[in-house]
């Protein structure tokens, strides 16, 4: 964690009281967090003689544990957090994927530089790795120490990641390094994002320098990093979960797959990670598709069950097929919205080629096909109508279709969905989805609205 995102003085004082036997006993004695009962509970704990600052710290920590449940599940009940740590920590299912990379490569000793509250270190320790977790901020290092208690092969070191001698560690020389560079800086009461990789802490050049030493290196970066900033010696894997693109992980040397330059990994709604290289369930043709039920794995079900699991699309190069010829065409019976990880990885035309689909505009990440293809890598819709891009026409359509709940998607157009929804004034009883976009056919472009139904 960058010192600029370290806990403030009030949070540090609270943690100092919390991270004591008395503080932890009091925290663990509380029931599930209930925001409506916080005031009464605070008054009750103070009446019992507990220090007001400790009471505030305990109640804050109870709230953070409840918030962290979305990332860590039941593990959160036994962890300690900082406010920034909850926001910035790697989700448990994704941290498990990171740890699997090192375990599968046979890397025994991994140094987690800038470990924060210790989420990735915990995942590594759970796979029997020797872990040296390094954190610059003393309060955050103390939190990581608590979270790694019970894992004898994990050790927290309070030190500067960039000045630490990786060959002179108590657990022996580092074999692998994991980094999550700070990409935010705080000041004057607010936090702002950093977009220059050399402004990260540590900078991207520090990551590549470690890789140049031959170490097995993994680094978590923001998914919006421009492709030109990605080192070509790395494998870049964009990861999404529940529809949110959560990161791009860069992998070097022993933890890089030699035949993968970039990848989009989509974790299913159950959050269960799929090991890299596991059976590929990327595509499942629908019942009406030629060869339905075969796909790329013959035992895939036709009802689209595989579409709810994890899937990965990879490319051995940074070049993708051009959006032309068979990969560009008219709107068919089915419409697809690629997952954000596919879009971030620049694999839209690769996906279209794999699916037997086509882009409807060369610069817009929407696909279409004449037969249904189930894939976890894109959300499928059936096209009801292709409508003119005019408010008058759309308002009439909404009224005639008795629409009351209206979802508006857009890509490649400057429409503001909230304003358009007000203009269309849906007051009926039915649900509808409209997609505002552009088409290109025979070199000519036109704006259209697609009325679509989600394929379940």
UniProtKB/TrEMBL annotation:
Q: Where are the transmembrane segments?
A: none
GO MF entries: methyltransferase activity
Concerning InterPro entries, the annotation shows: Methyltransf_25 (IPR041698), SAM-dependent_MTases_sf (IPR029063), Thump-like (IPR041497)
Q: Where is this region: Disordered?
A: 276-317
User: What is the designated name of this protein?
Assistant: SAM-dependent methyltransferase
CDD domains from the UniProt entry: AdoMet_MTases
User: Can you give the residue ranges of the THUMP-like domain?
Assistant: 378-450
**Keywords for the protein's UniProt record, in alphabetical order:** Methyltransferase, Transferase
Hydrolase in keyword set: no
Domain Methyltransferase per the UniProt entry, residue ranges = 110-167
